[in-house]
Amino acid sequence: MSEHLARGKRERIVATLSERIYDGRYAPGSRLAGENELAREFGVSRGTIRQALADLQRQRLIATRSGLGSFVSFDGHRLGRGWARSMTEAGLDVSTRVLGIEPVERSMVPELPTEVSLDQGIAVRRVRSVLEDGRPCPISFECSTVPAVAGLVDLPGQGLPEGSLANALADAGLISDHGTQQVDVRPLDAREASILGRDVGTSFLRSVRTSFDVTGTFVEHVISLLDPRHFRLTLTFGENS
Predict the structure, then answer these.
(1) Per-residue pLDDT tens over the stretch 197-215
(2) What DSSP element (H or E) covers 182?
(3) Could you count the other beta carbons within 10 Å of the beta carbon of residue 153?
(4) Pick from 200, 202, 197, 199: which is nearest to 185 by CA?
(5) pTM of the predicted structure, to 2 decimals
(6) What number of other Cβ atoms are within 10 A of residue 177's Cβ?
């Protein structure tokens, strides 16, 4: 039991510090607070802090320098937090058009993992576009399913707060911490081609991502069709990955 509690505390610390890094509260190159200060903030031992920092280092978010401390090494954009935010941070003018928000049952959600407990969900369909030659060009089509819990169940009538599903999830206390993602390439069918303004059979990246919060609670299942001119998959390997 004590080992389980210690692991839970470490995971909470990792989730909190990684969010601060991804949100820019810890800028690239900045030094994190020392182990003693972090231990006081989170109410844990220095040993737990060291384990959490080691996890962050394995994720290549920080680098630890002997005698100096831990420094933020992450300087990219995390697509898992939302295509629009990441591309906007990269300097692109991105617009989002919501095609529909409606309640769904589990049987209506394709490729939802069997381990996900979902009786009722809310489906959100969106198209992202960027300006090309002064005109909006669709670059992604996304179908997200989130649990119909308090704070989300009324989305079909109220719409997305500030046009953002990420904001709605955060307001409902659902913050993605981990999950699975599969990416392949597939040709657009007639419906998809019409939505994206492309020819039938055009090759797009297809991403299927299911995310959970730090407690293992289901957060979001999203199937995305992504224009390969604007999106790419990067993998790292080797002993430091």
Answers:
(1) 999 999 999 999 999 887 8
(2) strand 178-187
(3) 17
(4) 202
(5) 0.65
(6) 19
